[in-house]
Write a structure and sequence with these properties.
mainly alpha; 6 helices; 0% strand
């Protein structure tokens, strides 16, 4: 019984697989899968609890709250400097509001990502990250839309400058981790 429609052997110059060729292909593919599985586990060694803790101590994660605190400090410093340089209170409040546009959503996301629910398993953690990232973007957009109504005599360049500086704090967080020299293996 042959299925309807064009088959591999129907094209000119192409022969259909004979049962023997098909059997050889199946044997090769199953042998390939087994050797792949064996090679994947050959170099794998399960860590003990002490080894895992030592590995975590070598490369500790950066706390999201540390990043948020740095954003608050950076935003306040930029607002103070902008207010002093320009000699205007409206520039200070505009820059401070710009920092808030980054900090408030970052606080919401840090709170959501450090909750117990988001660390249940990898799947829940990934969905939680996406959800809180959408919340963060949405709150940022709403805060930017409300800026002219909340801040009297809004100065957009000051707002955007503080916003940009606070966003760049994420790059500083990557630098905090630093580069550690790779340990030398002894043979």
């Amino acid at each position: 019984m042959r299925p309807k429609g064009p088959q591999l052997g129907d094209a000119p110059g192409v022969q259909a697989d004979t049962p023997r060729i098909a059997a050889v292909r199946r044997a090769r593919s199953s042998a390939w899968d087994e050797s792949e599985d064996e090679s994947a586990y050959r170099g794998f060694k399960r860590l003990s609890a002490l080894e895992a803790q030592a590995l975590r101590d070598l490369d500790p994660p950066v706390s999201p709250w540390r990043v948020v605190a740095t954003q608050v400090v950076a935003g306040f410093v930029v607002a103070c400097l902008a207010g002093l340089v320009m000699g205007s209170v409206s520039v200070f409040w505009s820059a401070l509001y710009g920092a808030g546009v980054v900090v408030v959503p970052a606080v919401l996301m840090a709170r959501g990502m450090t909750s117990r629910l988001s660390s249940v398993n990898a799947g829940v953690s990934a969905v939680s990250f996406m959800l809180w990232e959408f919340v963060k973007i949405g709150v940022s957009v709403v805060l930017l839309m409300l800026a002219p109504r909340i801040v009297e005599q809004l100065v957009w360049p000051a707002l955007l400058l503080a916003l940009l500086v606070c966003i760049k704090v994420y790059w500083v967080a990557l630098l905090w981790r630093g580069r550690k020299p790779k340990p030398v293996e002894r043979l």
